[in-house]
Amino acid sequence: MDKKTISRDGTSLAYESTGQGPTVILVSGAMSTGGTVAPLAVPLADRFRVVPYDRRGRGESGDTQPYAVEREVEDLAALIEAVGGEAALCGISSGGALALEAAASGLPVRQVAVYEVPFADFLEDGATRYAEYTAHLSEALTHGRRGDAVELFLRLTGMAEQMIQGARQSPMWRGMETIAPSLAYDDAVMGDGLVPRDRLASITVPVLSVAGGASPAWMRAAARAVAEAVPEGVYRSLEGQTHMVEPEVLGPVLAEFFRG
User: Fold this and answer.
1) Which helix (H) or strand (E) covers residue 100, if one does?
2) pTM metric for this prediction
3) Contacts of 210 (CB under 8 A, 6+ apart)
4) Cβ-contact 90, 26 below 8 angstroms
5) Nearest in space to 255 (alpha carbons), one of 95, 16, 46, 53
6) Which 3 state secondary structure label does DSSP give 245?
7) Distance between CA atoms of 20 and 195, rounded to whole angstroms?
8) Domains in the chain: boundaries
9) 179-236 pLDDT, tens per residue?
10) Which of 18, 22, 44, 170 has its CA 20 to 30 A from that of 135?
11) The domain 3-120+194-258: what is its CATH number?
């Protein structure tokens, strides 16, 4: 990340900018940085100015306590101001929940696209599972057990125990533990884990909610529910795609939507 701006509370935010045209800001999800979503810039940069950034508490951005979702909305406000005063937002996974909240908060956002925000309305015992995850995550982070926090998140995503233990032995684990405190931020952004229908109904700009055709049925249903809750919402399913969507598949769909 070669550029910096400052949020309202003094937190330094690192971002990059590539391409020319209307601005699209990429908002990453849990355990991710701006670099994670940066590959989406490739299929978009010929028509848009694409801005991936490190959310607070991760990558090259700073952090300021205490955390509140409102601070992350202010981060996006500062970033939008730094890149010209208006932007479209593209949020991946829980980053989509943040993008939707930014739009509902009245930021100068012209469009929002989200990919598989993991609202648990259609997951068996989803609300209970989210509540238990929140409680256990808070306990682990309060006591400095970052590795346990990462394990909790990986289990929430459905990763098998054998794979989790294998990940613990991998070179990437240290980096995952470094970013683990930000899991609490994504947990807060997701609220109670259910589609915030009343909040989404207040969004006045077009919203595209996308899911992978090979993703679990509950995740596709959640994506559809987001589109149905927004007055100008549209749902799309990408054949053969999962939560780890391929940029070259998602990119053209985003470009079509952002062109209006």
Assistant:
1) helix 94-104
2) 0.96
3) 113, 114, 115, 116, 223, 235, 236, 237, 238, 245, 250, 253
4) yes
5) 46
6) coil
7) 34
8) 3-120+194-258, 126-187
9) 999 999 999 999 999 999 999 999 999 999 999 999 999 999 999 999 999 999 999 9
10) 170
11) 3.40.50.1820
